[in-house]
Amino acid sequence: MSQTSRSCVHIVQLPFPSLGEPHEAVRDYYRDYSARFASELAGYFIPEGSLWELPLWVAHIAGMLKEIGYEVNLVDMSKVPAEAEACARFLLEETRPGSVLMMSPLAQNFDLALSVSRTLKAEGRQTVLGGNMATLAGPEDASHVHRGQVSARVLAEILQKKLPGLTEVAGLKGGIGRLDSKPDYTLLTGYKGRVPLLRLNASHGCLYACSFCGDAWSRQLHVVDPAVLEHEVQQFERLFPEARLIYIGDKTFGQSHEAVKNLLAVFANRPHYKFIVQTHVLNVNETVIEAMRRLGVVVVEMGFETADSEVLKESSKPNLDVDIYARRIQALSAAGMKVVLNVLGGLPQERAASHELTMRFLQDSRNEAWLYNLYNFVPYPLTPLFPVLRERIHDWNFAHWREDGPPVFQPYHQTVEQSWNQFLEKVHVAHSLISRPSVSASMEAAS
Predict the structure, then answer these.
(1) Region label for 151, one of left (φ > 0), alpha (ψ between -120 and 50) or beta (otherwise)
(2) Which of 42, 113, 218, 345 has the fewest CB atoms inside 10 Å of its own CB, making it the most exposed?
(3) pLDDT tens digit sequence for 42-81
(4) Are both 335 and 301 inside the same structural domain?
């Protein structure tokens, strides 16, 4: 049994079923993806059987807990089998009655979290459950369920039992604010050398309102205080000194000019870092490209859900003609940056014709796009599509709510099987595209 004091809060990172049982075609694709990435950025790799990144929520919660005077312990179960009985037994051995355990499950380990929480609660532990799935949890599932954004003040009130067993903090839609809570990465040093990059946010949120997006920060934008950014980077240097690749987690790079300015300032005298950013095609212009160049961006990710403008319109995503999209990709490539398309399959409005348009665009842009991140749509509770699709959801086993799995809902214009086969075709085509020699390599070979 752990000998930590009663003022210690245990942060629990639960395992994910997909890590132990990835889809074979997706697994094989990402093995070649990893090799292609490493050919440009030495040392890059995609872990198999473990998390691809640091569980960033741990750092944020740990920072808030330390701010209000609690000791913090991480129970990292990310590499153990996703079995409720075994997870609960391990946690009971590691804690004592009265211990506080915090969990923030995602969809595919949500059922696991509920089962474990109920067992722990019955054995006298205090469980606190939050995160993007908490809207589907009830007071019976944990000692306390928190829905929405969390702060040090809210955590203090929960832990001091000043709030009831269910709390909810709504975000300010359309709001722009600042964040000054300092994450603490000390508990995550066990991931040193186990993940290919670090993630840093200069802002949280996005002012777009795409109906398929499950980000809790949608339609609001909060800029991270420059002092917090500096604090985080100093932790990177101290705790992960070998790291050289940073993923800027801002949902839409360039949407906040202040966030970009803060990034440029904090890394002005740290030229050894390289960066990956993600952005919206509407945000790509000469000013943003120049800011990327000054920062040291080597890879730009852009969302590309479908080449069908009608499907995008139905999904509330502002869009441009695919020709304009292609020119933006070309502009980034001309600036020396690799472009990765975030391809989202399985949208409920997708049709066979939409899929064909998307396949054609992937082929036509094969000389500009470098890699593809492949996802199949999941109707997470925080997506605007969730309440619309709820009656069409046929599979409520959350272990099946995977971005490498079949749709858990009935699409509008085709069968589940047709939609799933289209996603697998995207995987196949993307795999063939990244397996071919690059244009530059072909030209070198010819010369």
Answers:
(1) beta
(2) 42
(3) 889 998 888 899 999 999 999 999 999 999 999 999 988 8
(4) yes
